[in-house]
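Q: Structure tokens for this one, please.
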Amino acid sequence: MTLKEKVYAYKDDIISTLTELVHYNSVQGEASEEFPFGEVPAACLKRALEIMEEHGLKTTNLDNYIGYGEIGEGEQLVGVLGHLDVVPAGEGWDSDPFVVVEKDGKLYGRGTSDDKGGVTASLFALQILQDDGYKFKKRVRLVTGTNEETGSRCLAHYVEKEGHFDLGFTPDANFPGVYGEKGMIAASFAEKNSQIISINGGLASNVVCNKCVTVLPKDFCDFEKVQEYVDQNEKLSVVFKESDGNIEMTMNGVSAHASMPYLGVNAISHTFAALAYGGSRDVLVEKYNALIGTATDGSNCDVKYEDKYGELTFNNGIIRTADDHTISGTIDIRTGLLVESEVLAERMQKAFDAKDFHLEVHGCVKPLFYDPNSPMVQAMVKAYRDVTGDYETQPMTIGGGTYAKVLKQGVAFGALFPDEEDLAHQADEYEDIDRLMLASKIYANALIRLAGDGSERNRTGEQSI
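A: Here is the predicted structure, written as tokens:
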């Protein structure tokens, strides 16, 4: 039986496993001592560990933060790091985002590609290697976190309890492998003196906001000019209605992942641009457009940066009005591979201070970089090429941040193929069934290389490294 036949023998099980995991709306919820990220992520983790046990892995739940299933022997530890939490589903879905719908060979649902599909493909890669009698010369842990989308405190908890991995990969990005991940800056802004009655938009800091609802006094600006601004952008729409003598304005844009904000249309940023176009001289409107605006490269606040691996990206994902009328919003920046995040954060702070616009920097993450010709990166690329026959696509750098940053040697590796559209964090997210099977084959090949002893051949006929 070929490797492809072995994978497809589990096709129904793979689909049902992914369907079951997607059923959990595992967005971070209300924290408690027992459930650090809410009850639903913990329930999803519990079920994932039960499924791992059903497939012969020895499991451990680390305080409902994160868990893992282990197989193999030896001192070295190979990590396969995926996550079960998801960003909020948002609007615009053609079906229930937490009930998988199969259509045209695709499985639609929140988390199918980010990252429950990658976790499922990795699990069945381990299963077919067990079926084949493969003897793991290193311990392999399939790790499933519940807080990757909102800070990765789950993985920090793992490291505190269990230590680091020797090598591995995270199935949470692109094939044929990722050798660099941009640094990150998390920040927020706030303003108390605006005449805006309320403004609320966005679901997560790492998603381009596609809907922003603003309540404004009737004389705030010329709303016909606001409509004129919107009409000039075919990807924007706006709805006005009177509410308690005020104007409620709903701006609709296009969502995208915060690491690629140029693929979306930010409803928050265009709300402020449209209000200025309508003649508003409100203090927040002026400060926002001066320092943030509709640019996605940070040019307005002196953090624009580009190197040979890509350019900095800037996203305001959430805006909210508090009970004391303070309006605050989030800033998500993906910096670059050859620059210190702290340096850019200091420059942004100075720019905001100069405009008397309150900014708080919550944290900076250093970039991750491997030589693309390093043995680790090339091992992943070869595992991909041996299965797909694709020798043209090269490993890449990305703006997204993954669990790979905790690996001593390891990269983000799939499960998105080069010719697939990336719908992570967007409506109608899906996983192609045939590509999911193919990813499982690639992961099996990669695990042979990572968990072997470097010399023996195993029953699949692949050479271990």
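A few notes: Residues 433-451 form the longest helix (19 residues). Residues 134 and 458 are 6 Å apart (CA to CA).
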